[in-house]
Amino acid sequence: MEPTRDPNATLPDLLEVLLNKGVHLNLDLIISVADIPLIGVNLRATIAGIETMLEYGMMRQWDDQTRAWVQKSLAKHLAMGPDEEVIAAMAASHYQAGFHRTWRPGRAYVTTERLLIHRRDPAETLWEAPLTAIESIEPFEDASIGGEARTRLLVRTEGGSEATLSAADPQRLASLVQESIGAPRSSTSLPPDQAAAPRMSGHVWYLETLANSTTWRGGRATLGADSASGMTELTWRSPMDSRASVRLDPADVLSVALERRSNPTDESEILVVETSHSVLRLASSHPERWREHLTEWSTEAKEAGDGAAG
After folding, report:
1. Tens digit of each residue's pLDDT (9 = 90 or more) over 19-66
2. Which of 252, 234, 253 is nearest to 244 (CA)?
3. What CA–CA distances, in Å, run from 3 to 28, 40, 146, 183, 185?
4. Contact 227, 142 (CB under 8 A)
5. 216-249 pLDDT per residue, tens
């Protein structure tokens, strides 16, 4: 195997391969000094995500012991049925729509018998429904207090009752419940004009300014539709961010140009986007394509605005 350099590869890319596919090492290594063999290493190792390991029959005993420990720990603050088991858990909230309208935080639990939102201290079940009583669970887009679009879950139960939930991973929570109740999977509800593919998307490096220095961060930039406003916007987010670090409206763009600067890609030029309040510097393997798309995007938005004003 010869070492190769991929400027688009990042640590999250490596982790994705390890978690989803796995790596098996079969290695015999001899360390020599002055042509004299001193140390021998015989290595046989399999590295993969837990789900991949279990799929191939590995670490079953550890999985059984962990599940038993989790069940015992949960039983201390959450009443469980004799044969009830937890399938998944994640941070979540339930929207209380009574006299006081507010989100009440806790954890969502999908068990073999029910879906519930429970908080540990003080112990209280904020909302629950048997799986047999759930008719549907659908993701939908809702604007948060700060104006950013968030994916919520609308749960309909027997008798016409509805509940609104928020979760750390709403799509996964919805899929787990849909599988449990035998319902078809659904995607986030979006207007037809917002369901189109993004105008431009790809791996992009963002030059972030810190207190006394700057650093390049790898992530994904998308020039596409915003589900809240219906307008296109430029967003950038690293795999470690829970939300986009850059959100840019076309009306804020003053100019788009290329600049010669050292960057993590093999290209000698980077993209410089001047806005009404800052300057963004982005590096890509296709800077000219990004420049063309961003220029057209900004020009079209301004012409549409001038036409509406006229």
Report:
1. 777 777 888 889 898 888 899 989 888 888 777 787 778 888 888 888
2. 234
3. 18, 23, 46, 47, 42
4. no
5. 888 888 887 544 444 578 888 887 666 778 888 8
